Amino acid sequence: MRTFHIYARLTHKYRAGWAELDRHEYVTTLRLTAPKLLSIDDDGTKDRIVHGRISAKQREQARKVWEKLPRQGRAPFKQWLCAAVSEAFDYGCRCEHDCCGHYQNHAMARMYGRNVVVKVHSYRNI
Ligand SMILES: [Zn+2]
Known about the structure:
The chain is an alpha+beta fold. It has one domain (2-124). It has helices at residues 56-68, 77-89; strands at residues 2-9, 24-32, 36-40, 46-53, 103-112, 115-124. It is globular. The termini are far apart. Bound molecules: zinc ion. Zinc ion binds at residues 93, 95, 100, 102, 125.
């Protein structure tokens, strides 16, 4: 199990490779397994899966952050938390040109009760 600090992205001014320049707020900390490879194609495209659990204390910590957000335009709590977890795994390079060959990650987190499942799709920019 590895510890992941989850931050909610409060602004969306920058694209993927520069997302850390947007404003973020600490949400909670999760203990997650290392990514497990599900499949890999000849071109290096791969799908991985990460499992974990969220404790009642962690969930309460996240809810306190969510409750401080403006109600108007706020996603439902579970959807908002899943988006924050997903973004912890998203990655895009900063190259100005396509075909650089770097991996780009797109993640989708789901929660089933206290279980957290994150599917990470990675592909090379070729
Ligand atoms: Zn690149």
